[in-house]
Each structure stands twice: as structure tokens, then as C-alpha cells.
Design brief:
Shape: globular
Order of helices and strands: HHHHHHHHHHHHHHH
Number of helices: 15
Distance between the termini: 13 Å
Number of strands: 0
Mean pLDDT: 87
Length: about 300
């Protein structure tokens, strides 16, 4: 019990407190949804790109554990497909909503939720494996989802979609961070300090804003789609990690602790943003984010 309570009290609950406080502030109307959207705009436009660039610019890319990364991406594809099929065939949702919910089952809240927890539990060395998984998720899961949504909705041609992806600040930060890493240059001390300060604000600001936004969700009836996506993310994905790391994959020392935590991460709020952008219902997405965030606290504690 003491082994479980230590990580829960010292690493997990302090991070979980931010969305809880945001949720309470939203319920009490101390923060409005437009205010929370402004916070998230700051995070997406500045804090997160700075965080990703610094992480990848200073990471030791030679230490990437490719078997773990490939297994992780493969498990995400399985969850993505399962989430889409359930929502489309069982719950008869539209292709756009089913696609976004499928992505929610696969795309975790690793950068805001898991990264600070992993750093507290395993030290600064935990940044590199989590950052690598974030980068690959953004370049694969997010880009593929954007392409599919553009094709389904017919909002723009292929060139328009590719241009939008190429100009995405997160993708630019990842590409520039990797390029800077390979250049062999060192970050100027003042620039590094700015990136560190900006990046450090990403997780608490985003989680607080997420809590404010989700405070408007109607939780009186959860619904099948939200429960399905939550179970895929919080039960199935961690079980996959147990099987992979227990029998098939021997993770390298630097990845053995942080990587399983990413498997246990809750649904990211990215699906909520995409739903608003493409005119899909976001009620089930919001409920899945809330449920998975609450339940992940206990699952992550077991993995820590």
C-alpha cells in the first residue's frame, strides 16, 4: 500500500489537481469557456511548441528504443480501429464522430499528464522517451486523422490539407527540434531558459483549461460510446502494456519506467478540439476525456 500511495500522493495527484481545480472553477463560473479557450490557445500556440522543440533539440535520439516505439504505435492502430468500428457499427455514429472517438481511444494525454508525472517519478531522463512518443504520435496519429477528416468532410483538396499540416506549429516544432538536434549545435543559455519557462507552463495551463471546458459537460448520462472509448484507453491499452513488457519486449533502462505510463494515459483533449473544428458532436468525447482522466489516476499508480 505504501508503494502505491507514494507515487499517488507525490507525482500523480499534484498533476491531477489542475484539471480538478479547473473543473471547480468552471462550475462556480470563476472562469468562462472563452477564458479557457484563450488559455488553450496560448498552450497550443507557444508553450507546447517550445516544450516539444526543446525536448527534441536536446534529446539523445540514438537512445530511442525502437521495439517499444513500434509496439506502442501498433497498439494504437488496433485501438483506433476498434474504437472506430464500435462507434460506427454498434452505436451508428457518423463517420466523422466515429473517427474522432477512435482517435481518442488511441491518442493519449502524454505531454500534459504523463510527462510531469514521469519526470517526478523517474527524473529528467524520463523526458526523452515520452517526448519521442509524443513526436511520433503527432506525426502519425494526428496527421493521419486530419487527412481522413478532410477527405470525409470534403472541406478542402489534398494540397490544402497538406499545407495545413505542414504549417501546424506542433509539427514545425518537432521537425525543427529534430533538425537542430542533428545539426550538433547547442542552445544559447538565454534561449534555453526561455524555452524551459514556456514549456513548463504547458501542462498546468492546459490541464486547468481542460477542466474549465469539461465542467460544461452533462455527466448525468455517460452513454455507450464514451464508456467504450474509456475502457479501450484505460483498460485495454494498459493490459496490452502488461503483455508486451512482461513477455515480449525488454525495454531499455531509460524507457522501462516512462513508456508503460504512456500506455496508461487518459484520452487527450485533441479529439474535443477536432470535433469542434469539423462540426462533430463532442459530448461523448468530453465524457471520455473526463472518465479516462479520473480512472487513469489509479491505473497509473499501479504502473508507477
Amino acid at each position: 500500500m505504501e508503494t502505491l500511495l507514494g507515487p499517488l500522493q507525490n507525482a500523480i495527484l499534484p498533476v491531477f489537481a489542475f484539471p480538478v481545480l479547473g473543473f471547480i472553477a468552471g462550475l462556480r463560473r470563476h472562469f468562462s469557456r472563452p477564458a479557457a479557450e484563450g488559455i488553450n490557445a496560448y498552450v497550443a500556440g507557444l508553450a507546447l511548441p517550445c516544450l516539444l522543440f526543446r525536448l527534441l533539440a536536446t534529446a539523445d535520439l540514438a537512445k530511442i528504443d525502437w521495439p517499444v516505439l513500434i509496439a506502442y504505435q501498433g497498439s494504437q492502430i488496433v485501438l483506433y480501429l476498434l474504437g472506430y468500428v464500435f462507434c460506427r457499427q454498434v452505436f451508428k455514429l457518423s463517420r466523422v464522430e466515429a473517427l474522432i472517438l477512435g482517435m481518442c481511444a488511441a491518442f493519449p494525454n502524454h505531454v500534459y499528464f504523463i510527462l510531469p508525472i514521469a519526470e517526478e517519478l523517474y527524473g529528467p531522463g524520463a523526458r526523452e522517451p515520452v517526448a519521442t512518443m509524443v513526436a511520433f504520435d503527432t506525426m502519425t496519429m494526428l496527421c493521419v486523422t486530419l487527412l481522413l477528416l478532410e477527405v470525409i468532410t470534403g472541406r478542402g483538396g489534398a494540397l490544402t490539407t497538406l499545407s495545413s499540416i505542414a504549417n501546424n506549429r506542433l509539427i514545425l516544432a518537432i521537425v525543427l527540434g529534430i533538425a537542430f538536434n542533428f545539426s550538433g549545435l547547442s542552445l544559447h543559455q538565454g534561449v534555453d531558459r526561455f524555452l524551459d519557462l514556456a514549456g513548463a507552463s504547458a501542462a498546468p495551463a492546459s490541464l486547468f483549461g481542460l477542466g474549465v471546458i469539461l465542467s460544461g459537460a452533462d455527466l448525468r448520462r455517460i452513454g455507450g460510446p464514451a464508456w467504450t472509448i474509456t475502457m479501450l484507453k484505460i483498460v485495454v491499452h494498459p493490459l496490452i502494456a502488461v503483455v508486451l513488457f512482461g513477455t515480449i519486449i525488454a525495454a531499455s533502462p531509460g524507457w522501462a519506467g516512462p513508456a508503460p505510463l504512456v500506455f496508461a494515459a487518459p484520452c487527450a483533449s485533441t479529439g474535443f478540439v477536432l470535433g469542434l473544428r469539423y462540426g462533430a458532436p463532442v459530448d461523448s468525447v468530453a465524457k471520455a476525456v473526463i472518465l479516462s482522466t479520473i480512472l487513469s489516476v489509479f491505473v497509473i499508480a499501479l504502473f508507477a
